[in-house]
Specification:
Oligomer: single chain
Number of domains: 1
Largest sheet: 10 strands, mixed
Strand content: 25-35%
Number of helices: 3
CATH architecture: 4-Layer Sandwich
Shape: globular
Radius of gyration: 17 Å
Order of helices and strands: EEEEEHEEEEEEHEEEH
CATH class: Alpha Beta
Helix content: 10-25%
Structural class: alpha+beta
Length: about 250
């Protein structure tokens, strides 16, 4: 079986923080723009979405997904209202799912993959100042540093398969961090941060898929693209910084 992978978006050294960059999802009718204010996914078709998003979390129908950058000292009491206000300011009038991050969104990465009629795009933003070891790091108030992963599938997943997909993407995230030996302040292997979000969005094309675990083609593609995006962010950060500092 042959699997194709396409990296989307400009290299880190060409990313102007002000001018938005359009990334190629390879999925017809689905576009992504990134800049210093947000990652913005727009679909011409309604998307079935399952997420842990701040705005519109749970199961939703939406045509827009925004991952909004906020200052590391953000302390808003109603973040969902702030995200919605941002989206409306960007001209979003329909259904929207919204995330929030203090990570630099202009350095978000997109990875897309396709095989046997399936297409998947992963758009990830990442901050690592708040890494935790699941079940080891004690509960604490939220802090800056978030990994937000948006997975767009040109297909139709049953709700149970979308839950399955969240697991596949989360496992891939943990493996990517392990590959880069990301550790907590206490020296434990980090599985993520305390405020990570995952969004699974489906176009509804084709026959319904009932499973999306890592042994399935669609689960494999989602895990592969999510991991590739995280590892690319790590590489590009090292290139920008001239080495590995602060994470």
């Amino acid at each position: 079986m042959t699997w194709g992978t396409i990296a989307g978006g400009p290299r880190a050294d060409s990313k102007d923080p002000v001018m938005p960059h359009l990334l190629d999802t390879t999925i017809a009718g689905v576009s992504v723009a990134i800049d210093a204010e947000a990652v913005h996914v727009r679909s011409l078709r309604p998307l079935s979405v399952l997420s842990s998003a701040v705005l519109g979390g749970g199961a939703q129908i939406a045509t827009e997904i925004v991952n909004v950058h906020v200052d590391k000292d953000y302390g808003g009491d109603r973040p969902e209202d702030d995200i919605l206000a941002f989206a409306r300011g960007r001209g979003v009038r329909g259904g929207v799912v919204g995330l929030m991050t203090a990570a630099e969104t202009q350095f978000a990465c997109l990875e897309a993959a396709h095989a046997h009629g399936l297409r998947v795009a992963a758009i990830v933003s990442m901050g690592l100042s708040n890494v935790h070891a699941a079940g080891v790091t004690p509960p604490a108030p939220p802090a800056p540093g978030t990994i937000n992963a948006i997975l767009v599938v040109d297909g139709r997943l049953a709700l149970s398969a979308m839950v399955n997909a969240v697991i596949s993407v989360t496992e891939a995230k943990a493996l990517a961090l392990a590959a880069w030996d990301v550790r907590t302040a206490e020296g434990e292997p980090a599985a993520g941060t305390s405020t990570d979000s995952v969004v699974i969005a489906c176009t509804g094309a084709g026959e319904e898929l009932c499973y999306a675990g890592t042994a399935t083609p669609v689960g494999y593609l989602m895990a592969r693209t999510a991991r590739a995006a995280i590892e690319r962010i790590c590489r590009e950060k090292c290139e920008r910084d001239g080495g590995r500092f602060g994470w």
